[in-house]
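Dear colleague,

Following up on Tuesday's group meeting, I ran the structure prediction for the two-component complex that the binding team flagged. I've pasted the input sequences exactly as they went in, so you can double-check that nothing got truncated or mislabelled along the way. The structure tokens for the whole assembly follow below. Feel free to forward this to whoever is handling the docking comparison.

Inputs:
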Amino acid sequence: MAVLECKHLTKQYGHVTALENLNFSIEPGHIVGLLGPNGSGKTTLIKLANGLLTPTSGELLVCGAAPGRETRAAVSYLPERTSIPLWMTTTQLLDFYQDFYADFRRDAAEEMLQHLNIRPKQRVKQMSKGTREKVQLIMVMSRAAKLYLLDEPIGGVDPATRDYILSTIIGNYDPEAAVVISTHLISDVEKVLDEVLFINQGRLVLQSSVDQIREEQGVSVDELFREVFKC
Amino acid sequence: MLRKLMKHEFRATGRVMLPLYLVLLVTALGANVSTRGLLESDNRMLDLLGMLLVMAFSFALMGVCLMSMVVMVQRFYKNLLQDEGYVMMTLPVSVHQHIWSKLIVSAVWFAATVVMVLLACMVMAFDAYAIQDLFRGFGQLFRDISQHLTAYYTINGTAFFAELLAVCFLGCCVVCLEFYAALAIGHGFPNHKMAWSVLWFFLLQFATQFLGGALIVLLDESWLHHLLMGWTDRIQFSGMGAVHLMMGMLIAGELVYGAVFYFLTTWSLKKRLNLE
């Protein structure tokens, strides 16, 4: 069964169409790049999958069900911005995730935090922007979820942090799960992707496996992206 | 899940409210010392210090009352409608559980604030002789009550106390829900979210007062007035019966207002949520 499926999905904000008639499905066991230029509708799609927005028409299914309380237990979501409560200490944050998610692996999270030299009593607001993003990613990737939705996980961070983030994703996701990474920084994520979805102005332009692009078109995903979205 | 939400809600709000209560008690103690000696001192410096301590107590008193309201509104706004909303609104809990956790915790802090204010006032007015008199008075009161207490007053008194608690709890919830409804509706708009929220608060306030005013007008020489008079003429009310009827009407009124604001809040959060 597809972990994420869109059937004629359309989302409008007033008169502005953010997503138009999207049709695709994502199977478990794949790392999928949701790629498109700024304003193409990537974040809207991820918000819809999390139930933070409601579709104007069409249908979006997560593990066969419309987004809601049950699907949220199966989805691990990394928002575009740092959203973990700033007043919490690291221990309180671990308690928080453990309380609400049965699939939260506290041991794995503690090990990763220790590796970053983050003290248990340290408050999130005392951390640098980069460290906060890493902590948030650790919380998200420490879950054994069925679907990981990562919205711009490497946007606005230095190259060393990008490497750390990507290795954390690869090293911690459940192989039975699907990972969707939304980004426009293709060259950095290309090496970890199995499949790509190109979105432009709310429409699906391409869905293909990375190997297929390389074999059939003889170009990298980054090169194809530049060609497709040429200004 | 509601219990877990409340646990984290108490953690978040307790770190603000508990230190404030401590400050209130310390300033109450300072004000006590001040009124028991400093203000009557011939030394101008001590006199000034006494005045400052009394002022600090007054500010702490106002601050605690104000903060219990501010924390209640701010928690809903920051926790569900700002950046934290991305974490909170994607938890495997329902919107109803989110709202109830906030309502219950706010009501508890309102009640705790009332208790702390009373306690602070007692600390401020503490005097060994006065306390002795107070205890003596309470002792006499309980003796009188136990002498004259009958089953009629025990049952009615307990019922009245329960009704009063319900009125206070529902009152706290209605106040919170009016703020929540305005914020939730306002934050469904794509731009100027806070301006829309303020506008909606005044609209809801206006609607509430208009409907309340219209009901009072209706009670004066109208079909409703005659209908109610017709009913009450046929029923013989005792004094306590009338009190219970009044409390019941108050509870029903609060339930109606609360239900409208609750519906507006949940509907906005489910259907119109639009986090930045």
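Chain B has a mean pLDDT of 86.

Cheers,
M.
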